[in-house]
């Protein structure tokens, strides 16, 4: 396998994971993009502190903005103003979010993009969400409409951007989705979501929450069993399958985004080991 697939990978953390990031710092390449989630129960100060820490440690902070969790326009302005003051506003990821009903005026990510506030506060690069296996609460048709509308909005406002996908256990739907995405005219780079090494039971819990396929055949393909939930598994087989069938002409620019589930150090160590294992052999010398 060509380890170049892991060039410029990105990671995800929560606002409370700063100590874990500090522990993992030495194993993560400087300049790595690190997304900071926008969770319920975390306040603006926690999110701003995390973004500052990511920057201080030599990485690129990518704070999330969860549209449906924003209680008001002033709350969005407060967050963006804080990021701008700290020099951490250049990159953001805008997502609709989990609440069944919006907690404020923003129904979805597109509504946040249309406020004009991102550019005003110094945002230059915007990530948006993609769902290769669908979403349990949104129809496929609505997902595609939302994604193409957001991509068009980024283009119209001259933002750089990318699409970060939900994680999955099967490369087949991801590759099919990438072809469909390109056929619909979306040319943004895609960061394919990949679970970092984690306990099988924990992975299945997240998969159930996000509607990720976990049939027995998919589980075997990924490398775990639904009848034995003990132990830990990593994305080795998934990445091999993705790399073997990835075609830049059909799939466009593709990178990898790791969902770490709090295991930043374990994920960084896994990536390093995987890259070493699959590094090209040194050229022989005839001298």
Automatic annotation (TrEMBL):
Its cofactor is FAD. Pfam families: MTHFR. InterPro entries: FAD-linked_oxidoreductase-like (IPR029041), Mehydrof_redctse-like (IPR003171). Keywords: FAD, Flavoprotein, Oxidoreductase. It comes from the Bacteria. It catalyses: (6S)-5-methyl-5,6,7,8-tetrahydrofolate + NAD(+) = (6R)-5,10-methylene-5,6,7,8-tetrahydrofolate + NADH + H(+). GO terms for molecular function: methylenetetrahydrofolate reductase [NAD(P)H] activity. PANTHER family: METHYLENETETRAHYDROFOLATE REDUCTASE, METHYLENETETRAHYDROFOLATE REDUCTASE (NADPH). Belongs to the methylenetetrahydrofolate reductase family. This is Methylenetetrahydrofolate reductase. It comes from Streptomyces eurythermus.
């Amino acid at each position: 396998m060509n380890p170049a697939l892991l060039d410029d990978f990105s990671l995800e953390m929560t606002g409370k994971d700063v100590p874990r990031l500090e522990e993992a710092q030495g194993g993560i390449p400087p300049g790595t993009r690190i997304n900071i989630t926008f969770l319920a129960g975390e306040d603006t100060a926690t999110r701003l502190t995390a973004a500052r820490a990511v920057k201080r440690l030599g990485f690129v902070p990518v704070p999330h903005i969860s549209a449906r969790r924003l209680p008001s326009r002033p709350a969005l302005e407060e967050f963006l103003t804080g990021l701008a003051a700290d020099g951490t506003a250049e990159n953001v990821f805008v997502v609709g979010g989990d609440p069944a009903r919006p907690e404020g005026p923003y129904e979805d990510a597109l509504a946040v993009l249309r406020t004009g506030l991102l550019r005003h506060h110094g945002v230059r690069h915007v990530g948006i969400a993609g769902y290769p296996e669908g979403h349990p609460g949104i129809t496929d048709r609505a997902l595609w409409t939302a994604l193409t509308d957001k991509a068009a909005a980024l283009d119209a406002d001259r933002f750089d951007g990318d699409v970060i996908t939900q994680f999955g256990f099967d490369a087949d739907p991801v590759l099919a989705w990438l072809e469909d995405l390109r056929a619909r005219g979306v040319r943004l780079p895609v960061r394919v979501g990949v679970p970092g090494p984690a306990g099988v039971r924990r992975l299945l819990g997240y998969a159930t929450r996000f509607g990720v396929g976990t049939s027995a055949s998919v589980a075997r393909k990924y490398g775990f069993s639904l009848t034995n939930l003990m132990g830990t598994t990593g994305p080795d087989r998934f990445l091999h399958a993705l790399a073997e069938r990835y075609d830049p002409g059909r799939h466009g620019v593709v990178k990898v985004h790791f969902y770490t589930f709090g295991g930043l150090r374990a994920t960084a160590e896994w990536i390093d080991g995987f890259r070493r294992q699959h590094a090209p052999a040194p050229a022989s010398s005839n001298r």
